[in-house]
Amino acid sequence: MYVVVSLAILVTMVLALVRALRGPTVYDRVLAANMFGTKTAILLAVIAFLFGRPDFLDLALAYALINLVGILAVLEFFQNRSQTAEGSHHD
Amino acid sequence: MIETVLDILSWVLLCLGGGFVLTGGIGALRLPGFYNRLHAASLTDTMATILIFTGIILQAGLSLATFKLVAIMLFLLLTGPTASYALANAALLSGMRPEAERLGENPPEGAG
Predict the structure, then answer these.
(1) Which of A16, A69, A88, B28 has the highest Cβ tally under 10 A?
(2) B72 closest CB neighbour out of A13, A31, A57
(3) pLDDT score recorded for residue B61
(4) Which residues are within 8 A (CB) of A62 and not within 5 positions of it... i.e. 6 or more apart?
(5) For residue A91, is it within any domain?
(6) CA A88 to CA B12: how far, in whole Å?
(7) How many A/B residue pairs have CB atoms within 8 Å?
(8) Is the confidence at residue B111, as pLDDT, over 50?
């Protein structure tokens, strides 16, 4: 049963990659990257039990921590940039 | 007997979680606007996390792995909505309006 779930997660990661490559705005790309990171943590947790190696859970925890910090840093950067850009040409 | 019930329950939870993950991926790829895609991705993020991790916990039994799984699940449940909120807030502040405003204006014109 773990194989089914991991296959579904892998397909979803491919779909998120397609959205990240096609995304019209930068926020679509950030959304796809966030989805990819969350699915990575879940996939690692599933793989830990698929192969019977509970050590992978530590990797999943580390990936979840890194994902949040990365997404918030990127969003802070783009939010500041967009606010200054909006102030310069206000319609 | 109890083990069989737990197996079936975790099977159902894991398959439901996989379905939710797949639905979120398809929705994030196919829905038209940015906020629609954000809705699909964020909603299924939390739901699939709950279902899949509960299914794995039922399989793991009572051990150190269960504690780690609970920790990862709680962390993902805390950070997923936070990241989605920050993403929507940044998009809104950058001037990207939701497309739902047009729906409020169009029906009276079409009806009248």
Answers:
(1) B28
(2) A57
(3) 81
(4) none
(5) no
(6) 54
(7) 141
(8) no
Residue spans of chain A under pLDDT 70: 81-91
Q: Which residues of A touch B25 (CB under 8 A)?
A: 11-13, 15-16, 35
Tokens 């099977």, residue? B11
The residue segments making up the domain with residue A25 are: 2-84
Query: B55, B13 in Cβ contact below 8 A?
Result: yes
Quick: pLDDT tens for B91-109: 888 877 777 655 555 555 4
- Asked whether residue A43 is domain-assigned, the answer is yes
Number of domains within chain A: 1
Cβ-based contacts of B10 with chain A (< 8 Å): 1
What contacts B62, CB < 8 A, 6 or more positions away? none
Q: Which of A7, A31, A78, A84 to mutate to test the interface with B (most CBs of B within 10 A)?
A: A31
What residue has token string 């805390």? B78
Chain A contacts in chain B segment 78-97 (CB below 8 A): 79-80, 82-84, 86-87, 89-91, 93-96
Looking at this predicted complex, what is its ipTM?
Answer: 0.81
Quick one: tokens of B34?
């940015």
Name which of A9, A34, A45 is nearest B21 (Cβ-Cβ). Answer: A9
